[in-house]
Amino acid sequence: MTELKTPTEIALLTEADRPDLIPFLTSFWRSERMVARGKLFYPAQQQGFIARKEGAVIGLATFEQHGEELELTLLDSRERNQGIGALLVANVLEKARQLGCVRVWTVTTNDNIRAFRFYQKRGFDLVKIHPGAVDANRGLKPEIPMTGQEGIPIRHELEFEYSLR
Predict the structure, then answer these.
(1) Is the backbone of residue 141 left (phi > 0), alpha (psi -120 to 50) or beta?
(2) Does residue 148 contact residue 112 with C-beta atoms inside 8 Å?
(3) Of 103, 148, 146, 149, nearest to 128 (Cα)?
(4) What is the pLDDT along the chain (165 residues), one digit of tens a residue?
(5) Other Cβ atoms within 10 Å of 31 Cβ, number
(6) What is the three-class DSSP state of 109?
(7) Is 48 a domain residue?
(8) Residues 61, 89 contacting (CB under 8 angstroms)
(9) CATH of the domain at 104
């Protein structure tokens, strides 16, 4: 189990947490809505786990179940390299096991180099590349920037999976 480097509380999302999620999401993502694989969704309305430090939201992982698969729809930790993201993912994986899922999957963009390293270190495999997917997603969410980390043009989605078999 990942040990946190800062005093943080990780808990299953409740209805009482939801009012805090929209300001958290919009402060970084420019919107409360997200899009992946051509589907628009609202993380503040999904199931998930929340990380708080001194009452403030500092991390969030949301998910949707699709039969025997669990899609990790959002992972966001505002305090990097503190173990928060790893603990949120560990909680999602445990929830997927409890639900009898055989696979957990997530999508990130081609510019997100930190995510490549993060997911692979935690046992996820890169299983698909969806060329041009982000270009298409801009039709649903025009505020997606054209460039991301290190000035890399954001164009494609990359799918990572964790097998629970």
Answers:
(1) beta
(2) yes
(3) 103
(4) 455 555 579 999 999 999 999 998 888 777 788 889 889 889 989 999 999 998 899 999 999 999 999 999 999 998 888 899 999 999 999 999 999 999 999 999 999 999 999 999 999 999 999 999 999 999 999 989 999 989 999 999 999 999 999
(5) 15
(6) strand
(7) yes
(8) yes
(9) 3.40.630.30
Measured between alpha carbons, how far is 1 from 24 in angstroms, rounded to an integer?
26
- pLDDT of 6 reads 56
Q: Is residue 4 part of a domain?
A: no
Here the tokens at position 101 are 């899922």
Backbone angles phi, psi at 44, to 5 degrees: -65, -15
Q: Is residue 3 part of a domain?
A: no
User: Six-digit token pair at 126?
Assistant: 């890169």
pTM over 0.85: yes
Q: Is 90 exposed, middle or buried, given 0-12, 13-18 or 19+ CB atoms closer than 10 A?
A: middle
* Position 39, amino acid: K
Residue (of 63, 83, 54, 53) closest to 13 by Cα position: 63
Give residue for tokens 């503190």: 82
State the total domains in the chain: 1
Range of the domain at 129: 9-163
The answer as to whether 73 is a domain residue is yes
Question: Rounded to an integer, what distance in angstroms lies between the CA atom of residue 53 and that of residue 73?
Answer: 22
